[in-house]
Amino acid sequence: MTADCDEGAAMTADCDEGAAMTADCDEGAAMKNDCDEGAAMKNDTRTRGLAMMEKVYGFEMQDGPGAHFAVTADHLFADIWARPGLSIRDRRLLLLGALTAQGLVDVAEIQVGAALHNEELDEEQLREIALFLCHYVGWPLGTKLDSMIGGVLHKRKKAARAAAPDAEAT
């Protein structure tokens, strides 16, 4: 009888284990739904990030691999560049100042090209930014920015001439 009772107890334990397994399965299904929702939210965040990158840089942006790109798209562009209170132009001006202060003129070149492409800043404004920054970040760094701006403007003018139909040929 004790064996039957123990067996009955074991059966009850099995039933409880079965109930726990069902609960685990239900929890697994809920976790899967949470994962599906999380993936959808992540995809939405990535979509918003890529869209903002396109707005900021003025060209189509493709999804990229790796954690660095994920944080760049999902956090920097989907969250930070999209925050209210400052326009893209405002953020770009701040970024140009910060990059110039750090001597990162090569990275600033990307922002200058995008500002011209998006018509946020023109040649005169960019030159004025460089002159202004000379007084706050030092003449050598401001001069590097001005020189880079001149190079970007030269390349754009050269590309525009090459793309324009030759007037003498007609």
How would you summarize the topology of this molecule?
Blueprint: H1 2-57, H2 66-80, H3 88-101, H4 105-117, H5 123-137, H6 139-163
**Main β sheet profile:** none
Low-pLDDT ranges: 1-23
Average of per-residue pLDDT values: 82
Rg over C-alpha atoms, rounded to the nearest angstrom = 29 Å
**Shape by Cα distribution:** globular
Instruction: State the share of residues found in helices, binned by percent.
Output: over 70%
- Report the count of strand segments: 0
Describe the protein in words.
The structure is a single chain. This protein has 170 residues and is mainly alpha-helical. Helix content is 81%, strand content 0%. It contains six helices and no strands. Helix 3 (88-101) crosses helix 5, helix 4 packs across helix 6 and helix 5 (123-137) runs antiparallel to helix 6 (139-163). The longest helix has 56 residues, at 2-57. It is globular, with a radius of gyration of 29 Å. Residues 1-23 have low confidence and may be disordered.
